């Protein structure tokens, strides 16, 4: 009797979870990220794979609410995978992720239809924030509505006044640099970089770095 009740409670809890898929070449990293996410009982990783093409074959059966896609996949580019998921109207929201030291092209992922972008090299909390942002703000199954919102936004004045150094820091963020990489490139301290990031978020009216990158690309602030 107690076992039955416990199973029922666990099933109900699972139904309330945010289901996720992780697509990344490195199995060890996938498992680390899975464990880190599932510490928060709100999240449940229902699928993880190193193959983007394999995920395309199974996504209609899995139907995760959010999919985290590495930008460095081997069998298909991250942006192409995002594009195919959006084009086929699969019911998932997409977070593009970089966890390598090298630079990646955030812009192509955003233009393909990713809901949020995160650089895992900065902080695991950035991953949680990116997931929350994707969950709250954008839905891949309502891509046409998102497109209408983007079209509306392009007609509004979204220009913000940036200091020269702020523009440089913002450019590095869009290219996928971490705080440490920006500090090294500009020969300034991590504290100074974080100060610039905070000021940029305030000027753009966003809460975190994923939102800042999305705002920057969507409004053409950095060419």
If you average the pLDDT, what whole number results?
79
The CATH topology annotation of the largest domain reads as: Rossmann fold
Tally of structural domains: 2
Output the CATH homologous superfamily of the largest domain.
Response regulator
Alpha-carbon distance between the two ends: 63 Å
Just name the CATH architecture of the largest domain.
3-Layer(aba) Sandwich
CATH classification, class level of the largest domain: Alpha Beta
The number of E-state strands comes to 5
Assembly form of the protein = single chain
Total count of helical runs of at least 4 residues: 11
Beta-strand fraction estimate: 5-15%
Strand order of the largest sheet: 2-1-3-4-5
- What spatial form do the alpha-carbon principal axes imply? globular
Structural class by sheet pairing and helices: alpha/beta
Instruction: Evaluate the radius of gyration.
Output: 18 Å
């Amino acid at each position: 009797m107690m076992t039955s009740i416990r199973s029922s409670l666990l099933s109900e809890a699972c139904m309330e979870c945010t289901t996720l898929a992780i697509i990344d070449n490195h199995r060890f990293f996938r498992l680390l990220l899975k464990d880190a996410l599932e510490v928060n009982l709100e999240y449940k990783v229902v699928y993880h794979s190193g193959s983007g093409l394999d995920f395309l074959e199974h996504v209609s059966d899995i139907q995760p609410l959010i999919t985290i896609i590495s930008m460095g996949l081997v069998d298909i580019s991250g942006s192409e995978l995002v594009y195919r998921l959006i084009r086929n109207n699969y019911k998932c929201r997409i977070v593009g992720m970089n966890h390598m030291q090298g630079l990646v092209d955030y812009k192509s992922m955003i233009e393909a239809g990713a809901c949020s972008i995160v650089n895992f090299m900065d902080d695991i909390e950035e991953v949680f924030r990116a997931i929350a942002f994707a969950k709250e703000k954008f839905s891949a199954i309502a891509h046409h509505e998102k497109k209408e919102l983007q079209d509306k936004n392009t007609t509004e004045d979204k220009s913000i006044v940036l200091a020269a150094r702020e523009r440089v820091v913002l450019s590095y963020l869009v290219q996928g640099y971490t705080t440490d990489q920006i500090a090294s490139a500009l020969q300034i301290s991590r504290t100074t970089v974080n100060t610039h990031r905070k000021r940029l978020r305030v000027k753009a009216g966003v809460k975190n770095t994923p939102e800042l990158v999305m705002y920057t690309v969507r409004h053409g602030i950095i060419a």
